[in-house]
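Hello support,

Our group uses your service weekly, and this is the first time we've seen a run hang past the timeout. The protein is DUF6629 family protein. I'm not sure whether the cause is the sequence or the server load. Input pasted verbatim:
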Amino acid sequence: MCFSAGASFAAGAVISATGVATMRKARRPDQRLFAAIPFIFGLQQLSEGVVWVTLRSGEQAALQDAAAHIYLWAALVIWPVVVPLAMFLMERVRERKLILTGLLAGGVTVAAYYAYRLILFSVTPQIEGTHIIYRNDFPGGFGDIIFVLYLAATILSLFISSVSRMWVLAGLVLVSFIIAVFMFTQVLTSVWCFFAAIGSVVIYWILSAPDKRPVTAAAG
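Update from on-call engineer: The timeout came from a worker crash unrelated to the input. Re-ran successfully.
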């Protein structure tokens, strides 16, 4: 989340509990990764709560650094892989599965790009107003391309999916991203993850839908 430590901890607890419910809702093995998304979101929000507390206190620098890296690894490394992979695993339509393969490859590229930077360069979280900004000394290069690949992996893959009701989650994440860009440009990493976490309830709703996709269209 982004607005306060209390809000981050509250959201983390609620979303994690929702994640437990969604994981229980998964009926098939190929749904398990998708069902785990809210739980991962919850842990991510809890880690930012720790960042808030340590920044306010001015103590526990090591804990602050660890929590900030957990949050950023989830935002920049885990999500661009987990989202398209979850869509790929659930997809049965051959043509869509091929597209998702390409999006997954793009997501892996993004994850490798950010993992390299998070390992070798420093990140310094700072409170500005009611938000946290994660300042870094990452080297430039390919930033625009990586950003496009990130959006393709985390948003376009949702629109490609043929899973019933998935378009609702895709639309929610897209609208959330647009709002975050225009209203909170400088704190996009933090704010967008908060908006996207709202989709946890939608994920439970998606998993509750009867599966009407044709099995005959499955890729071999």
